[in-house]
Amino acid sequence: MATIIALTNQKGGVGKTTTSSALAAGLVSFYDKRVLAIDLDPQGSLGFSLGLDIEEGRTISDVLTGQAPVQQAIQLTDYCDVITSNILLSSAEIEFTSSDRELLLKKALEPVMDDYDYIIIDTPPALNILTVNAYAVSDYLIIPMAPEILSLLGVTQLKETIDSVRVSMNPDLNVLGIILTKFNQRTLLAREVKEMAENVAGQMGTRVFQTQIRTSVTVAEAPAHGLSIFDHAPSAKPSEDYKNFIQEVIHLTSPKAS
Q1: What is the rounded distance in angstroms from the CA atom of residue 8 to the CA atom of residue 56?
Q2: Domains and CATH numbers, the chain
Q3: Which of 103, 205, 214, 249 has its CA 20 to 30 A from that of 164?
């Protein structure tokens, strides 16, 4: 049975897709896990980052609207299996009209749950029906957060939605932790936001990951080449940081993963 992890923050530009891509690729490359990455963001950046043409083949939109079974939407990459997304998914709020609209993803994934060790879901930078679908099916949430006040605000606003999903449809949903991205320890703001993030994490019953992802231009360059950060710049600081972060994720999820 797969361990399902959704990466979430309603604030954009916090490194959510980069972290999703690195986590999916790293679980395969360094731990030989079977991984399915799902892009729930209509921008389609996750599939693009992993080297796919997001306009080719079936997408998660086709799966959620019943136009294709999940198996037909899975595409193979050099890193992991991927279900892509594109702009058509942006109409989900209108198209998902059934009474079980919050559970469409959970039901769609049932046939492949035993085929993977991990399923990684990249969510949109919004609290909408797509985000709720991700929360409803996930075992864990990881919250990427840049060292900015607005990013911190986005984290605090997640708590109400998470609590609501726990009560109504997924009592086992846990926040695995907050991962600080684009981090520069030398700036006062970064250090102050880290301290505030630790306070917020405490209120949410979770943690700030010990690892921070240091800022580097290599992180922005990797998707343009369709490569993971580990292949594009294996000696760069973010590559080292993401390896350490993935090690933390493995450790924290190992009872279920095993």
Answers
A1: 26
A2: 3-253 (3.40.50.300)
A3: 249
